[in-house]
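My convention is simple: the sequence line spells out the residues, with the fold written below as integer tokens. I include a record here:
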Amino acid sequence: MSLSHHAAAPSGSALARHDWTRAEVRALFELPFPDLMYQAATVHRQNFDPSEVQISTLLSIKTGGCPEDCAYCPQAARYDTGVKAEKLMALDTVLAEAAAAKAGGASRFCMGAAWRSPKDRDIESVCAMVEGVKALGLETCATLGMLNREQAARLKESGLDYYNHNLDTSPEFYGEIITTRTYEDRLDTLDHVRNAGINVCCGGIVGMGENLADRVGMIATLASLPQHPESVPINMLVQVEGTPLAAKVAPMDPLDFVRTIAVARICMPASMVRLSAGREDMSEETQALCFLAGANSIFYGPKLLTTPNPGRDSDMKLLVKLGLRAME
């Protein structure tokens, strides 16, 4: 039987640890590159079919106008990035996009809304979208900002499979990137989601000017959660003109990014590790190394909320070239 049938293996499996120290995580980052890649690829093969990649599509169902001050985000109302505030998409429009995503090979449909935290009436609208997307035979994911306990329970009732709420970076570097909500706020939302019985999608962004200690801190925090996130998106910063981070940080070394993927795979062996934002600027060789290091999920389609993403044709050509196939 293909290992892919165990793609949703519980992160409490025998291989998973929840007591990673920062010293241990840093030691992984500092391994010789061939040794790190070997360890990561071995862990990947123990938990997944290495020839399969999960294909997800991300749609911005409510764009712009966010009151937060995330320094990387073009949707923050306070930054002049050319992104205009829009109303929540109509249900029929969202379902048409979901149907197109499924026809294009996606198995998961993710819906993102630029809210600090949704109102209860917003939750009801999103629940209708979740129910409609589920009816198409797709897994569902949403990222709507901070949730309270009742909102998480309502989303679970609608059938939501995953909720995305990233930690973004280490606790120490977090205040350099965001001041309008705390790290604890993010952890509280993750608790509400987990307690509601919804799978957690949680990762971060690298290349924001953080140092190695911050990448260590981010992964150590994720890997020390009582239950590992079922999906761990690793984003490379996309510098958008008008945001505070635009042209202020040097591009991340591609091999440092691959190392981050590999360490995430080793520390969270049964999680899906997703190549998220930044792939538009990655070479085929960098992406191939990421898959070798244990990445087994990508966002598929020309746009990630508001930033560019490789086109579907180029992604499919790359997967074919690498002998990889879409996870069912």
User: Anything to note?
Assistant: The chain has a mean pLDDT of 86. The first strand starts at residue 52 and ends at 62.
